[in-house]
Amino acid sequence: MSAAEDSLHRRIRADVQGRILSGEWPPGHKVPAEHELMAAYGCSRMTVSKALGALAEAGLIVRRRRAGSFVAHPKIHSAVLDIPDIAAEVKARGQAYDYELLSRRLRPAREAEAAALDLDPGGRVLALRCLHRAGGRPFALEERLINVTAAPQALEADFAAIPPGTWLLHHVPWTEAEHRISAASAGAAARSLGVPAATACLVLERRTWRAGDRITEVRLTFPGEAYDLVARFTPSQT
Questions:
Q1: 68-125 confidence digits (pLDDT tens)
Q2: How many helices and strands in the chain, by DSSP H and E?
Q3: What are phi and psi of 65, to 5 degrees?
Q4: Which of 29, 30, 70, 183 is the most exposed place for a label (fewest CB within 10 A)?
Q5: What tens digit of pLDDT does each residue of 186-195 get?
Q6: Which CATH number fits domain 3-71: 1.10.10.10, 3.40.50.150, 1.10.1040.10, 3.30.450.40?
């Protein structure tokens, strides 16, 4: 590729990237076909392909064989060892955030739940089921239990107005957390997420403690295309 072609591929990339980041081309928007870009910029297919390849590598577009290229739906990147605020992260990615409380029940903990939250038999839990949306689309199904013995203030919280994860981060500081990450089909979550039951999903299960008290247990189910997990490490010291 000549210097002129190299400069042109950078220009094409910058132009397309600018339209995506400005919101002119929203997620799902079809990017002009390669032959259209070739005509618009007076360049070769190789130059256009290099520009689109760089955009795909950056996660800004998705290239589909025979269908063309489309603006990607931004993923939320979460550090494996962090506890993210879903609402804040969705907004930080430039997407509109919406939340719906599907159910709220104060009830006795089942045997397995009591063991997970270190409750006495018959101890009460606040069971919450919530749906998070990003850009108007279902993003995550949240199924959460809160130990109201350890966090009684949760009984007064308006979880129809504020997501429980957001509320907990601001009102019940945690000192220890445990994550379990797995892949599973959408299954029973499919209807809430608006996907087929066989859709591959990322499932994040988390328990948190505060000074030895078990506060909450949550299961978050994300359609696989919407979420990934990132962690940065330094070598351990021996």
A1: 999 887 555 555 556 778 888 888 878 899 999 999 999 999 998 998 898 988 899 9
A2: 7, 10
A3: -60, 130
A4: 183
A5: 999 999 999 9
A6: 1.10.10.10
